[in-house]
Amino acid sequence: MATDERTRPGYFGRYGGRYVAATLLNALEELEAAFNAAMDDPAFHEEYHAILRDYAGRPSPLYPAGRLSERVGAKVYLKREDLNHTGAHKINNTVGQGLLARRMGKRRIIAETGAGQHGVATATVAALLGLPCRVFMGVEDVRRQSLNVYRMKLLGAEVVPVEGLQGTLKDACDEAMRYWMGTYEESLYIFGSVAGPHPYPTMVREFQRVIGDEARAQVLEREGRLPDKLVACVGGGSNAMGLFYPFIGDEGVELIGVEAAGHGIDTGLHSASICAGSFGVLDGTATLIIQDEEGQVLPVHSVAPGLDYPGVGPEHAWMHDTGRARYVCVTDEEALAAFRTLAQLEGIIPALESAHAVAQVLNMADELNAGDIVIVNISGRGDKDCEEVARLTSE
Ligand SMILES: *Cc1c(COP(=O)(O)O)cnc(C)c1O
After folding, report:
1. Is the pLDDT of residue 66 over 50?
2. Minimal-distance CA residue to ligand 1 atom 13
3. Helix (H), strand (E) counts: the chain
4. Which residues in 287-314 are b (16+ Cβ under 10 Å) and which e?
């Protein structure tokens, strides 16, 4: 195993852990015990995979992208998480945590959301399981993401606007944690990425590794060998970790995480926590974060709403330090160009988040060889972004 989780549960080198108030420790310990028991129970895995198959539409295809391959001079496969129910990989995780909530006898689900995608995926699973759902969302995000607010409400969830400092994701996380602290006996907080206090980074990884488990089997079947490179965008890091994790022991497979450089690292308007961040604590975990000299978390920016997070999952920070994965960044401009390129080359409109991964493959064309096999994670579909891209590109 490539991590030291076994000897120090919840830690990835100097990253990870549980930096929370004492009252929240009880909730996290209860959750960890329930998660471990579920992982050891074949019936849990069976139900989880049955829902992913019959409801979410898994397995997602591994599509050989012929025209993109021609463009970059290597064999490129797209892992089609955009074809999942609700349009992204997030449903894999919310199904897992939703089933866990039911197994724990919880009567309510809580979630935070930034752009609204995790909120929608959580509200969807809450409806599926017949559990009431409360989603915390920054006031600014509520204003910007009115369609997703409508979706969550339509699905029966209650959306709670949070004022906070900026009225965005960070404030929503803080408020959701606070609310959970007071209500954990009856509620479960479904966290949206491989960040947050232990057990979330490990748990969300286990609920997203289905992406990599499938991709590994699919590429072996088609090619008879493992790929040379995997490429995925990194916000909190769940879609990337889900793809990477089953390949961690395969040393010949290069893992490439793509962060958002926004307007450019030099402008300070980015969300590249690994490429341009430093050691700190955010949302209860030690990791690489974007902060000033006094340790104040700084505002972040990306054209892709799902990448707009000032931290990153602790396991990614650790894989960066050990060199197991390589982290690069891509600007808004490059992502917008790749959004269009994939649409026109393959008839697939990627989410702006996923367009960062596509842009990286286009940027790497020079270093690719004709025989190379590259798998790119298309974490979500881009319908949600069309209006914004139209607005930005007509200026
Ligand atoms: C939320 C989201 C992301 C970023 O989250 P990760 O945890 O880094 O995967 C990426 N792509 C899409 C489509 C998303 O909705």
Report:
1. yes
2. 380
3. 16, 14
4. bbbbbeeeeebeebbbbbbbbbbbbbbb
Q: What is the DSSP string of 161-209?
A: EE-SSSSSHHHHHHHHHHHHHHHTTTEEEE--SS-SSTTHHHHHHHHHT
Atom of ligand 1 nearest to the CA of 114: 1
| Per-residue pLDDT reduced to its tens digit, 355-385 | 999 999 999 999 999 999 999 999 999 999 9
Q: Which two tokens stand for residue 84?
A: 């999942």
**pLDDT grade, residue 8 (50/70/90)?**
confident
pLDDT band at 3 (very low <50, low <70, confident <90, very high): low
Chain mean pLDDT for the chain: 96
Query: Tell me, what amino acid is at 211?
Result: I
Cβ(376)–Cβ(76) under 8 Å?
yes
Averaged over 155-161, what is the pLDDT?
98
Best residue among 86, 89, 244 to mutate for probing ligand 1's pocket (most ligand atoms within 8 Å of CB) is: 89
280-354-261 Cα angle (round to 5): 45
The residue written with tokens 């960044």 in the block is 329
List b or e across 179-194, with b for residues whose CB sees 16 or more CB atoms inside 10 angstroms.
bbbebbeebbbbbbbb
In this prediction, residue 11 has a pLDDT band, given cuts at 50, 70 and 90, of very high
Q: Is the pLDDT of residue 87 over 80?
A: yes
CA of 240 to the centre of ligand 1 (A): 9
